[in-house]
Amino acid sequence: MISLEHVSKRYGDIVAVDDVSLTIPSGQVYGIVGQSGAGKSTLARLVNLIERPDSGRVVVDDVELTALNDTDLRAARRRIGMVFQRFNLLNSRTVRGNVELALEIDGTPRARRQARAQDMLDLVGLGHRGDAGIHELSGGQQQRVGIARALAANPTVLLSDEATSALDPETTASILDLYRRINAELGLTVLLITHEMDVVKSICHSAALVEHGRVVESGRLTDVIRTPGSRLTSQLFPLGPIPQSADPTATVIDITFAGGTADRPVIARVARDHAVDVSLLGALVEQIGGTQAGRTRLEVPAPAAAAVIADLRGQGLLVEVLQGEDAR
């Protein structure tokens, strides 16, 4: 488990991380999401103390990193692998040599580090490219080398800082599949730093939204999408503004579906039972946290709105009123 307790970090007059407390359960793929400059990358560097916080505690696997001296901290960092956005590979070394580097620095015997490097290259699908030069690889292959290198020391936590932002969509999908497999097969806690909500939707069990150095929302995605007013949910399902063509006298509602409700003919049944015509203004259905979920925007004639909303809420659905007398 990773625990941040009232952690802050400043750079001069700039507050990069502002009194953040966050718990990341073991074994999850956890997304830290936010726009550029929100403080999410600084937050990642505080997890493994590449940057030391000005205040607060950082605990990883029951070890308080912020209480360690430099020697003990170096040892503790071996349990935290790091994958960088720009790969940070050495062109002077082969693919295998890059994966071996951390083990070499730790004094691991040559035969053992070579065997470990080969195992990690096999895991990421590059077992046949160990003798290749870095310049011979595509961007996606270089990212796989970075992942293999981060895994070489057998960490329990894997940090990934915008590791897919420079990749094309097809390569991004393959890298995310690799992270998913690493999480499932090795049981690692994977912490993904990203500004891309598609990454969160594709692979994360939980997420935290960071704005101006603060965590403004966090939790399991299956819980978040059931939370009224959730900012994360609005970004996971961006339906946009209400169309100008919508009837200004009608009630406009957003219905969030999750789990077993996502595949039920809810809207058709409500329209039939209440003998009312509803207009579909937008809809998105995704796999979120391993569960089918979605959001639908409807325009409901004002006279029937109260009964329709009560019916939907009675079925356990999250209904938010965007326009109409009950809008709040």
Describe the structure.
The chain folds into two domains: 2-220, Rossmann fold (3-Layer(aba) Sandwich), CATH 3.40.50.300; 231-323, Alpha-Beta Plaits (2-Layer Sandwich), CATH 3.30.70. The model has no long low-confidence stretch (mean pLDDT 90). A hairpin with a 2-residue loop joins β12 and β13. α3 (95-105) runs parallel beside α5, α4 crosses α5 and α5 (139-151) runs parallel beside α6. It has 328 residues and is an alpha/beta fold. It has helices at 40-47, 70-77, 95-105, 110-123, 139-151, 169-186, 197-203, 221-224, 231-236, 266-273, 302-314; strands at 2-11, 14-24, 29-33, 55-60, 63-64, 80-83, 157-161, 189-194, 206-211, 214-220, 251-258, 279-288, 291-300, 318-323.
N-C termini distance: 37 Å
The stretches of 5 or more residues where confidence is low (pLDDT under 50) are none
- What is the count of helical runs? 11
The tally of beta strands, per DSSP, is 14
CATH superfamily of the largest domain: P-loop containing nucleotide triphosphate hydrolases
Side by side, the strands of the main sheet go: 6-7-8-3-9-10
- CATH class descriptor of the largest domain: Alpha Beta
Query: What is the string of SSEs from the N terminus onward?
Result: EEEHEEHEHHHEHEHEEHHEHEEHE
Into how many domains do the coordinates divide? Answer: 2
Shape: elongated
Main sheet?
Answer: 6 strands, mixed
* CATH architecture tag of the largest domain: 3-Layer(aba) Sandwich
Strand content: 25-35%
Report the helical percentage. 25-40%
Mean pLDDT: 90
Helix vs. strand class: alpha/beta
Radius of gyration: 23 Å
